[in-house]
Design goal:
The protein is of the alpha/beta class and 272 residues long. It has one domain: Glycoside hydrolase/deacetylase (TIM Barrel). Helix content is 31%, strand content 26%. The relative contact order is 0.19.
Length: 272
């Protein structure tokens, strides 16, 4: 029996993808680091200049982090684009969409000194035009504002759905289901904003979930881009009853008859 695995022979992957780059991320990143978890942080470089702030509907002030704070804060985690100024993109022309994406990508790459491969759509509007612009800007994925409520990884990387919003009433139940699932390449991805943890008094709840995930030996913390690049590579494999060929340039992991092993780039394994 052949089973696809994540790196290091892990059966499942876990990620959080949080938007906006706000002050509460300082506490949130510390929580991720405490439990050795991985986050993807979707940032708007155009709103860092003056530490843009706004008033949440419950009266709480939400403040963006400045450029001099974000580089050290997010070390060890993925940075993705969230558009330059977090606009309602349904009102933008094609050229305006391209500018929002290209400028943010370029700014973030210069600021962090690394390639920015992911994009998270602001608000809940998405269209074929936006998807086309995302692809032309050489992003490898676009995370949209919909939940999947599923542990099966998405197969459309440009309409990528996280599993659940952290404010969803089913969050605790889904966490337990994920811990127990035997789904191949199971993935659990939580999406949100760290200011919600203040607004809805959720810090203890989210830490309990992180602690439970961290205790599971079969779950691998990964960034969104690491997950997607791994899944893309896995989709290139050739698997038959007698051999597996890794046609990608990264190592892949499998279990054959419950024995986990690493298949290196362009390597073939015969097992009969």
């Amino acid at each position: 029996m052949i089973t696809k695995l994540y790196p290091n022979g892990k059966a499942k992957a876990f990620n959080v993808t949080y938007d906006d780059g706000v002050l509460q991320d300082i506490r949130f990143v510390a929580l991720l680091n405490k439990y050795n978890l991985k986050g993807t942080f979707n940032l708007n470089s155009g709103l860092m200049e003056n530490e843009f702030e706004w008033i949440h509907e419950n009266g709480c002030v939400v403040k963006r982090l400045s450029k001099d704070k974000v580089v050290s804060l997010y070390q060890g985690h993925e940075i993705a684009s969230h558009a330059l100024t977090h606009p309602y993109m349904n009102d933008l022309s094609e050229s305006e969409i391209m500018y929002e994406l290209q400028a943010d990508k370029a700014n973030l790459e210069m600021l962090f000194g690394r390639e920015i491969k992911g994009f998270a759509v602001p608000f809940d509007y998405y269209s074929e035009l936006i998807e086309s612009c995302v692809k032309r800007c050489d992003f490898e994925y676009a995370r949209i504002s919909e939940e999947s409520h599923s542990f099966v990884p998405q197969n459309d990387y440009y309409k990528w759905k996280a599993t659940v919003f952290h404010t969803d009433a089913t969050l605790k139940e889904l966490t337990q289901q994920f811990i127990k699932t035997n789904e191949e390449l199971a993935l659990f991805q939580i999406v949100g904003h760290s200011y919600d943890l203040d607004n809805q008094n959720m810090w203890d709840k989210i830490e309990t979930i992180f602690k439970e995930i961290a205790l599971q030996k079969d779950i691998l913390p990964m960034t969104t881009i690491d997950i997607i690049e791994y899944l893309k590579a896995m989709n290139q494999t050739e698997i038959t009853d007698s051999y597996i060929i890794n046609n990608s340039n990264i190592s892949l992991w499998f279990s054959v008859n419950r024995n986990a092993f690493e298949l290196k780039p362009f390597e073939m394994l015969y097992f009969k």
